[in-house]
Amino acid sequence: MDSVQKAINCFYKNKAIHLEDLKDLVRIPSVSFPGFNPQWVRDAALATAQLLEKRGFTNVAILELEGAHPAVFGEVQVDSKKPTLLLYAHHDVQPSGEEEKWMSSPFAPQERQGRLYARGSADDKAGIIMHTAAVSSWLESGQKPPVNIKLFVEGEEEIGSIHLASYLQKYRSLFDADALILTDTSNYDTGIPSVTTSLRGLVSLEVEIKALDHSLHSGMWGGPIPDPALALSKVLGSLVDEEGRIALDGITKDVLALTAEEKKDIESLPFDRKLFAKQASLFEGAQILGSEKNSYEWIWRKPSLTINAIQVSNRKDARNIINDKAWAKLAIRIVPGMDAHKTLRILKDEIKKRVPWGLSVQFFHESASPAWITDTKHPVFAVAKKSFIKGFGREAFFIGCGGSIPFVEPFATALGGIPALLIGVEDPYTNAHAENESLCLSDWEKSIVSAIDLYQELSHVL
Ligand SMILES: [Zn+2]
Fold first, then answer.
1. Protein residues near ligand 1, an ion, with CB under 5 A
2. pTM value?
3. Average of pLDDT values for 352-364?
């Protein structure tokens, strides 16, 4: 029997133990948001550290930083001549939301129809256990893992990884590695393993158009006096074309086109427009925009503009007036190729240019964070694609992600160009961040089996 199979058999033998490890972690309500007891996050860090020791990791330490939730580090050093993997997961969770919407208590894990329900069951405590199960299966089968392992478990992912760059800086010497494996993303569908290779960035701002010192009677003044609500509507409406695509040349011309291979990858993914509309909860008759055969092509690799909030007077008090001012918050999801700051600048210039009737415009709360893409030519990607066959019986797909993941950029910057594999155990039914979060247990199992094989395969190419 080869060494990978030995480790996999060991995982199957101890599967129930690893599942118990996961349940123990999700019982700790480690919400990192302000206003929640930070002691729970500390308890989750302590429990994670104890678990690492129990599963054979060494040099286990709680990493601290003034004013930050604690992180956890552990490693398995096998041979300094062998390559080193840095594994990532996070032990903090989102608040549980509305308690009465949960079918079982959010911090009391419950198995139903092959899924484990609890806050953090998937995002991202399953990621932690994926690492501990894969590594300890090598150790407990009486073998050394084929690579050196370092594991970093963050405690602030859900609040934007605000101290991650500082952690990486302060403890820089701990993190030297040849490749990164980050387990906090979603698979394209249940049973379809995926490696995320691009993320969208986000540019947002608030805009306010002012016409008057105070609101006026619309009968006495309506006509010659410009209405700022109409002015704002005209400006906002002009930012996209009939198809809903951003109509600002300066912004869209930088978009990095899909390579032939990327195009082929997206086309090979199953996509059903009806199911997509249903998953989005779109009402009957409302169209899915864009002519893409697979709408994810737009979500992953083309920019989109959304008006997140808009305010002129209010619904309760909608009098017959010309309002003094109109306000909106808008955001552009930017894609690889686009520059966040340039996008923000052009957006503001265009809004200023388009405001009619000499009205004044002001901007507030501007933000600009970059998109991310990785070069999949590094051999780790081909190897990762294949390793998923071990667990899932099929190769992984390279996919994008329409959202932003704040921890990717600090890692890329701090560790300077080492390849990063973003994999994960979520699926479209996980409901991460919402009520009734759940983990598909068979996908979680398959991911661990694949990870055991991945360590071996990566040892040949790093
Ligand atoms: Zn997460």
1. 123-124, 184
2. 0.89
3. 97
